[in-house]
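Students often ask why we bother predicting the structure of a whole assembly rather than each chain alone. The short answer is interfaces. A chain on its own may look different once its partners are present, and contacts between molecules only exist in the joint model. In this exercise we take two input lines together and write out one structure for the complete complex. Read the inputs first and try to guess which parts will touch.
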Amino acid sequence: MRGTVIHAPGDIRLEERPDAAMTAPTDAVVRLSATCICGSDLWAYRGVEPVEEPHPIGHEYVGVVEQVGADVRNVEVGQFVVGSFATSDNTCEICRAGYQSHCVHREFVGAAQAELLRVPNADGTLVATPGMPDADLIPHLLAASDVLGTGWYAADAAQAGPGKTVAVVGDGAVGLLGVLSAKQLGAERIIAMSRHEDRQRLALEFGATDIVTERGDEGVAKIKALTGGLGAHSVIEAVGTQESMMQAIRATRAGGHIGYVGVSHDVELPGEELFFTGVHLHGGPAPVRRFLPELIDLIWRREIAPGKVFDLTLPLDRVAEGYRAMDERRAVKVLLQP
Amino acid sequence: MRGTVIHAPGDIRLEERPDAAMTAPTDAVVRLSATCICGSDLWAYRGVEPVEEPHPIGHEYVGVVEQVGADVRNVEVGQFVVGSFATSDNTCEICRAGYQSHCVHREFVGAAQAELLRVPNADGTLVATPGMPDADLIPHLLAASDVLGTGWYAADAAQAGPGKTVAVVGDGAVGLLGVLSAKQLGAERIIAMSRHEDRQRLALEFGATDIVTERGDEGVAKIKALTGGLGAHSVIEAVGTQESMMQAIRATRAGGHIGYVGVSHDVELPGEELFFTGVHLHGGPAPVRRFLPELIDLIWRREIAPGKVFDLTLPLDRVAEGYRAMDERRAVKVLLQP
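Now the answer. The structure tokens for the assembled complex follow.
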């Protein structure tokens, strides 16, 4: 099969690799209909995370089940499925509490920019769609695999809902889908922080009511000005830097909630400042599996169109071009067709 | 009147000062029946916090209303009242959300180790008891003013409740009353982390089911061993140091809740580690006012006896001796009689 391998920062190659194959009776193998490039893949691509040795990459996927292990009960060969980047048994105490991304049997998916993917813990990870999706639904279902699931989790962690003012730090695909999620959860007012016109347009289409172009302290001052001096009830943080975390913390009112899902890089939270803010802080790797049934249903009924974050579609063999486009911010998110 | 002034680290004096007097029509003046020394007073006493110039000190109080301003409606001269260290109007948006310690009109109390105390925002700060309390109830009511209210808030923020295993980091008065609070909130199992026999005894009396004497990584390993390798559902942090915060974070299972109320000193939380824990973090200065009616009711009906944390009672003129006893850990908490 063809699969993507990162050799070093900036060095992405599509290579001929052994077909993905089951290694445990709880595995499944999925023939991918679509995969994509995540903002978090760029950390390695940009050299912010080390690439110790060449390794397969990619963790977002939808496709058709091609093989299932002897112990798999919940999905069948031929079904169209959506899965999460963190596999889960969906039966342990942590999973039952809704934190499948921390399942005691978790394995992270890391070879999804390919034709075939082995999925561990298939029963607790994969969710079948009601039938074979129309082609136009595939980007939306693919978004559910991570970027929508993560934005949704952030909105949920930030307790976005009726009567709430939600601010969103980060206008990447996760931030934009945080806007969509907050809207779906019933938020009254959604402030997108973005300085890029194309992303602002998408944020407004997804339900943003206000756009703030300022960043850092100025951005915080703007959020306060829009919220009677108090700060937002709910803040979604979808970047993962020191600046974005502090912007999120400072833009939240006392007693408010921050849902942070940008993978933290070189972040140190000052304890004393955090203490005196009185905010709630919750986040981390999103338990996408918790939300998948609901998200698939919303997509299937065409109530949401999260796939709009894909503004560039390429065949898998042009994966390197996709990374370049995202790295250079020419694309919000790139869909790859195997 | 006589009032306590801190002149420098280690230098506490009871002095003759002007009588506390109203400065706004929303003030009240309370003649104190009892006051006490807080663990947080020791930060200045020990020189961890600077003492820029001599200033009055103390923020826990109960007593009888002696004067009320023209705008005060909710309390009357002659009533016995309990108040919080953070005054609040109890009507602003932040107060109505239950975060009175962050009220837009908040003023911190800082002169309560005295005979008389001016209380700003009297209507939204003071809660009257159903009548004049019996003398034996006074220590319990005094505890509600901060140390119980803070422990209760920590237990609430940590979502202690039925079916939950709660770990408590810190065996000072707040940690011990965190144990009592978790018990009242219905926690199934309460693990007190303490290496002092007298405090262990009180923790067990307040409802602890397990005692862990280890600290740091060893303490975390012990909590994990007691919780099937997962960590506690709920962790109360009642110290405020880097070690205690990391102990709390690492002892919590993914998706679990930390209620942190130890005033943070020199704490930097590592973003990446926090991210991958998936815990909820909430705390800060406790909105004691939110809980006062319920706490007073529990004390009035003699269902809880939080005043047991006072293991030394001194007349106010021996306040310096009280600080020394707490600093040298000869006392858990010192009650002062004006």
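Check your guess against this: The radius of gyration of chain B is 19 Å.
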